[in-house]
Amino acid sequence: MKSRAQRQFLLGAQRNGSDLEREVVADAALMGWPASPLDPSAPLPPIPSADPDTAPIDTGVLYPTQLHATVWPTRGLAVRNRWYDELCVWTEGVQSGTMRRASIQLEGLNMAFAMLEEEKSQDVAVTLSFGTIERCLDPVTQVLESHRLLCHRIAIVVRGQIDRIRSPYRVQSFIGWLRSQQICVGYRLNAARIGMEMKAIGFVQPDFAKVQAPQSRRLEDWQDALLEARAAGLNADWLIVAGIETAEQKYLATAAGYRFGQGTAIKPCHPPTSAHRSTVTWPGACDVDPDTVTGS
Fold first, then answer.
1. Which of 62, 83, 160, 235 has the fewest CB atoms lying closer than 10 Å?
2. From CA 110, how far away is CA 54, in angstroms rounded?
3. In 3D, which of 55, 135, 147, 126 has the Cα closest to residue 97?
4. Would you give the distance in Å from CA 116 to the centre of its chain?
5. In this structure, how many other beta carbons lie within 10 angstroms of the beta carbon of residue 51?
6. How confident is the model over 232-260, as pLDDT tens digits?
7. Please, is 30 exposed, middle or buried when counting C-beta atoms within 10 Å of its C-beta (0-12, 13-18, 19+)?
8. Is the whole model's pTM more than 0.85, yes or no?
């Protein structure tokens, strides 16, 4: 059974009339996070090795021209619902190893909480790969525990190849712990067909899922993809179709029955420093003076 905060995070999206890690991003220098590793003179913090007997792995220095971040809003298709904002952080121009990717995702998690603390967004989602969860479980847990009062306003989207998980119990325990902390757990499907993700879907049992928009221009193909998602055990009401770049794709997604989407044709991405008012409610929202909440 979902907690009150999890239900608020999901149901809030339908109460109001309101990757995609694309290269259309703002320069990282515009983000202005205080004491941030985005400063070219400051390396990303070292991440503990998977082997506790070895020294921390040096993740190296990532310069602003290499590290990018952007926010993709998630919106309703048939009605103007505003759900969460997804923060995407990635490198460009450098080859990122497993531990460097983990460090980047950990920094993204810190940035997401900074957005919430500064009321830049009402609800934020960040991605964590299975590899990051396995290798950096303690640092990730520490970040979440240090922001307990904001955990109900964040969602974790997990991704990765389930066959490459070396410690399934470790990942599954973390997912269970997230739900105990009132954090919604999503899953990003990467396979060409949803049916190929059955094992991962059963493993994660996501509260919501994110799929890539079909490349076909036939409505039947979009409808078939949605039926396949239902057959795989996903709740179609909380299925997000991403990569909606044209008005035709937006029409096909809406006609097929998808409720939420991401993409330029729905709402362009924006830098993390942009403030937007969310129409998603959260626990205690009725006690807050709307004039004190920033956004648009």
1. 235
2. 25
3. 135
4. 14
5. 9
6. 999 999 999 999 999 999 999 999 999 99
7. middle
8. no
